TrEMBL record:
InterPro entries: SLH_dom
Protein name: S-layer homology domain-containing protein
Boundaries of every SLH domain copy: 25-88, 150-213
Signal peptide: 1-25
Keywords (A to Z) from UniProt: Signal
Superkingdom classification of source: Bacteria
PROSITE patterns registered for this protein in UniProt: SLH
Length: 219
């Protein structure tokens, strides 16, 4: 059973994946990853400074990720920057005094589309996180919009229609892996372990497929 009460943990402790942070090696390894399939990936991210625990010894891999936490994770990991000149789409109504107000605005300015009834405390599902992560990657890093043959998997009928394209691309690019039964589990709530594994694959892909530098036209 996933520990829902972990949602009450401070946000700074819950999410600290950052694309631009300095690399460092943790002095104390996490002690709660022994039964976690993504253990090596979480440790690799930690050693590079992308992941921190809720304290020196615990990562709490089964803690559930909320929508606000997911947006913060994507904004920080992909190093999305505030740009007031980018109008973006319509922004959901959020309390400007809340900790997530700035990252929501940054997400909108960088092309992410959030629902008008955006609920920051809603537990994000795997399909919601994958969709938003892929859209942010494609916009920020100008990934090519490839034409693909849809991948068949056991629970694809459970996908929300508007998420199908991004999720299919994530599978083809190797950012998302199906389980042994060829299932994605799109409606399952996203955990910190799930998020770390997806972020690991996303960063790995971006590192291996950096786009060409655009030349500045000569006068």
């Amino acid at each position: 059973m996933k520990a829902r009460n972990l949602l009450a943990l401070p946000i700074v402790a819950m999410l600290t994946l950052s694309f631009g942070q300095s690399s460092f090696a943790a002095s104390t390894p996490f002690t709660d990853l022994n039964q976690v399939a993504a253990k090596d990936k979480i440790i690799a991210l930690q050693e590079k400074g992308y992941v921190h625990g809720v304290d020196g010894n615990r990562y709490m891999p089964e803690a559930i990720m909320t929508a606000a936490q997911g947006i913060q994770l994507i904004v920080n990991t992909l190093n999305l920057q505030a740009d007031p000149e980018k109008a973006g789409g319509p922004a959901p109504q959020v309390d400007p005094d809340e900790w997530y107000a700035d990252v929501v605005q940054i997400a909108i300015q960088n092309g992410l589309e959030l629902p008008a009834d955006f609920d920051p405390d809603k537990a994000w599902t795997r399909e919601e996180f994958i969709h938003q992560l892929m859209i942010a990657m494609e916009l920020q890093h100008h990934l090519p919009m490839i034409k693909i043959a849809p991948v068949e998997f056991a629970d694809m009928s459970e996908l929300t229609v508007e998420y199908q394209g991004a999720i299919q691309r994530a599978i083809v690019l190797g950012i998302v892996e199906l389980d042994a039964d060829r299932k994605l589990h799109p409606k399952e709530e996203m955990t910190r372990a799930d998020a770390a594994e997806l972020i690991y694959h996303a960063l790995e892909y971006l590192q291996a497929h950096q786009g060409p530098i655009k030349e500045t036209p000569k006068p």
